[in-house]
Amino acid sequence: MARRLAISGAPAGTLVTASEQTAGRGRQGRGWFAPPESALLLSLVLRFSVGRDDRRDLLPLIAAVAVCDLAGPRARVKWPNDIVFEHEHGLSKLAGILAEGRPQEGWIVLGIGLNVAVKLADLPAEVRPRAATLGLEKTQIEPTLKALLTRLERRLSEPPESVLDAWRALDALCGLEIECNQGRGLAAGIDDRGRLLVKLLAGEQIALDAGEVHLQSGGYSSA
User: Fold this and answer.
1) 22 three-class SS
2) From CA 127, how far away is CA 65, in angstroms rounded?
3) For 11, which DSSP code?
4) Which three-class secondary structure state does DSSP give residue 123?
5) Residues with Cβ < 8 Å from 113, sequence gap 6 or more?
6) Which of helix, strand or coil describes residue 186?
7) d(CA 29, CA 120)
């Protein structure tokens, strides 16, 4: 819906929300499941100048920091698009972010799914061990939306360098051993374009724009 609205010329700030999601889509076509009236599910139309725009190019990182601002000190970011809670068994996914659009036409739709009032027992068995929730009541979903939009607006107004510093302070992968398509190595933060830096065990350092990343210790993966 939000994508169609953006294509038809909807102004920046056009917001589409849902109370339930059974066929949500994440990166690499992965699904996102949310029981009725339990999660914040939003798509926001944003418009930027055509050409290079640091805010547009860093939008997923900016959104991730804004979600962490809302979620509190337990929240971390797992590159490239997941907000997680850390625990003794690894990482549990609290939120997912997807930004897609037509930069050549100056618009992007930012999608965020955040488990606000999800009861983990209501999730499919295969998802439950890797999921997290804010544990709030259903009545808090609307206030959470307003609070998130406020934080997102503030982060969008900041210089890119400030957002990158904030993201790096929230990095859940830095220093951990991971596996990617190019091999195994240590996650070494992100560069100024938001690419994941990996020091491969063979000695080379690479920068990933996208792709599968697996934690060697926890079995959690993201794309």
Assistant:
1) strand
2) 24
3) P
4) coil
5) 21, 24, 32, 34, 39, 40, 41, 95, 96
6) strand
7) 23
Confidence of residue 19 (pLDDT cuts 50, 70, 90): confident
Domain residue spans in the chain? 2-172, 173-223
* Alpha helices, H only, the chain: 2-7, 54-57, 59-71, 141-156, 160-169
**Per the structure block, which two tokens stand in for 141?**
């979903």
Render pLDDT for 198-207 as a digit per residue (tens, 0 to 9): 999 988 999 9
Q: What is the average pLDDT across 160-178?
A: 96
Q: Report the SS3 class of residue 218.
A: coil
For 121-149, the pLDDT digits (tens) are: 988 888 888 899 999 999 999 999 999 99
The one-character DSSP state at 52 is -
The fold of the 2-172 domain, in CATH, is BirA Bifunctional Protein; domain 2 (3.30.930)
173-223 sits in which CATH class? Answer: mainly beta
Q: What is the dihedral of CA 134, 34, 17, 166, to 10 degrees?
A: 40
Q: Which spans in 1-103 are helix H? A: 2-7, 54-57, 59-71
Report the Cα 57 to chain-centroid distance in Å. 14
Mean pLDDT of the residues in the chain: 89
Report the half-sphere exposure of 195 (CA within 13 A, side-chain side). Answer: 10
Any idea which residue has 């499941």 for tokens? 33
Q: What would the two tokens of residue 172 be? A: 């859940």
pTM of the predicted protein model: 0.89
